[in-house]
Amino acid sequence: MNSPVLTTVALTGFTVAFFHAAIPTHWLPFVLVARARGWTRTKTLGVAAFAGLGHIALTTLLGLAIAWFGFQLDEKLGQAFPLIAGGFLILIGLYYGWQQWRGGGIRHHHLPGGHHHASEECGHEHDQSHWEHELKDSELGSRGRGDWAAISGLFAMLTLSPCEGFLPVYLSGVQFGWTGFFTLSVILAVATLTGMLIFTWLTLVGLEKFELKNFEKWEAGLLGAVFCALGVLLIVLEH
């Protein structure tokens, strides 16, 4: 493996993790719950970071399984592995592109107890965020329950929804061995926490003009483009 491949994988990993964290599912619930329960900005950011660590931990654990499986394939396939891995990344990218084309670009994480569904009756489209309305169906925004119940609910929501978009990046770094795995895991942690805290803070201080709800509905398409590009570069730069 050469330096251009390492640089490409690292930059791709940071881009995927950061922009995945920019999706409203990673910061808007914290802001809404904080406003409903009267939390300070410091407490809200602390809760977001705590939930983010759970999100990162499960994603890393899944990445470990992918890396281990990839190591076994790399030993058997040798120089053919980059071609196969690149082709697999392109297939994943095409799958995400197909999801975007059929209207599945938005990827929801539901609040515990909240199951609001967008419909014509409620005035919301399926490609719009509806966290404000889902929060009304959830116990997280109620002050009748302790803060720990709300914090644990937010933690579970994010932890049980790993960053699936980052998992193919682990596959692209298999040929770097354990060094590649740990490097990508650090990139995942830094990019995810940075993105979550930045967008949570911007919304807390009232900068809704930086709102990224419309970005949410293009998530699948953007991931598809990134993985197709990464797959092509992995094949071209290696050969």
Can you walk through the features of this model?
By secondary structure, the protein is an all-alpha fold. It has one domain (3-238). The protein has 10 helices and no strands. It has helices at 3-21, 28-37, 41-77, 81-101, 131-137, 147-159, 167-172, 177-204, 213-216, 219-238. Helix 1 packs antiparallel against helix 10 (219-238) and helix 3 (41-77) packs parallel to helix 6 (147-159). The longest helix has 37 residues, at 41-77. It starts with a helix and ends with a helix.
Rounded Rg? 19 Å
What are the low-pLDDT stretches, counting only 5+ consecutive residues below 50? Answer: 113-129
| Number of separate strands | 0
What global shape is seen?
elongated
Helix percentage: 55-70%
Given the structure, what is the number of helices?
10
Please provide the ordered H/E string of secondary-structure elements: HHHHHHHHHH
Query: Structural class of the helix and strand makeup?
Result: mainly alpha
| Residue-averaged pLDDT | 79
Largest beta-sheet characterization:
none
- Percent of sequence in beta strands: under 5%
Tally of individual domains: 1
SSE order and pairing:
Blueprint: H1 3-21, H2 28-37, H3 41-77, H4 81-101, H5 131-137, H6 147-159, H7 167-172, H8 177-204, H9 213-216, H10 219-238
Helix pairs in contact: 1-8, 1-10, 3-6, 3-8, 4-10
